[in-house]
Amino acid sequence: MLAVQLLEWGSAPELRDIPVPEPTGEQLLLEVTAAGLCRSDLSVCDAPAGRFDYPLPLTLGHEVAGRVVGAGPDADGSTVGSSVVVHGVWSCRTCRNCRRGRENYCLALRLVDGRLAVIGNGLGAPGGLAEYMVVPHGGVLVDTGSLAPELAAPLADAGATVHHAVSGQADLLDSNAVVVIVGVGGLGHLAVRMASLLGAGHVVAVDPRDAARRSATTMGATAVYSSLADAASATRDLGGVDVVFDFVGSDDTMAEGLATLVPGGRLVVVGGAGGSVSVAKNRGIAAGWQVSAPFWGSRADLVEVVALAESGALLPEVTTRPLDEAIDAYARLRAGEDAGRTVLLPTTSDEPTPERDAGKDHRQ
Question: Model-level pTM?
């Protein structure tokens, strides 16, 4: 089968022909129907040797929709034939956080000798940028019903992560709330929509790219700006900002976001640009500040966003491309050339593919 694999740390991934995996034990075999690209993939590829406790070669892809087509001898085969999306955090299922339904904070995800531990498909285990993949058991699957695969795949990470981050601040998201979304990319555009769905009265989006700002408007932003400084100036007339959702996570965005907060305000950092910010009481920050850095989402978060997508309330904007164009698609992702989420389909460039911007088509 065709697969997109990282062969060496600090290098670009490559297209390779590898054997179709065989499910063993409780494993299930999926025929991949769509797989989303994420900037986290670039972070893995760019990493020096020793940062991740991942074996190479590694098939990338942690946003995966597929159809169950096979089962190991100890697996529950009742899902064979089902259309599903894969929850990309393959937790231990036994630690106290897993028992609480907080699989995204599984205690087994701790550092291993200073290296980042295996998380799941595409992040340590073979991923879904391939024609087939195996999952460890049926517990990581969520049924997607009739939802189109290219819309289901981004929900595995972008959707679940946004739901976890935004719904975690639901107590502040009333009709008076002033919310700022920094970075309207694959996750940020969904955050705009999620904040609106949860009732935030003022949803302000910030992104220097014209296409991203248009996306934010489509998803329900009440105002859009090209810089956080402009947004901060505008929100002063609204009394300041209750919650900043930072999908960039640079030194500048974190510092500027923190400075906009009202008393009791919150800075929620989702982006992984490597920034940091210094916080302390009585250091010029609004009283009662909170700073958090949520990670991914639980399986329950994924179930919720799939339901929202099936109802038409939360549909990602996607651009589809064939699997064999993965290397170019990653280059465009690195350059920030596409709004929304790029999703690869298990076709080749000489085969027909669905129309571009499938998310927009489904909203019409």
Answer: 0.93
Contact by Cβ (8 Å): 204, 180: yes
Helix residue ranges, H only, the chain:
39-46, 96-99, 149-152, 158-167, 188-197, 210-218, 228-236, 251-259, 299-311, 326-335, 358-363
Q: What is the pLDDT along the chain (364 residues), one digit of tens a residue?
A: 999 999 999 999 999 999 999 999 999 999 999 999 999 999 999 999 999 999 999 999 999 999 999 999 999 999 999 999 999 999 999 999 999 999 999 999 988 788 888 999 999 999 999 999 999 999 999 999 999 999 999 999 999 999 999 999 999 999 999 999 999 999 999 999 999 999 999 999 999 999 999 999 999 999 999 999 999 999 999 999 999 999 999 999 999 999 999 999 999 999 998 999 999 888 888 999 999 999 999 999 999 999 999 999 999 999 999 999 999 999 999 998 887 899 999 976 665 544 434 443 332 2
Residue 147 Cα distances to 64, 83, 95, 135, angstroms: 13, 9, 33, 20
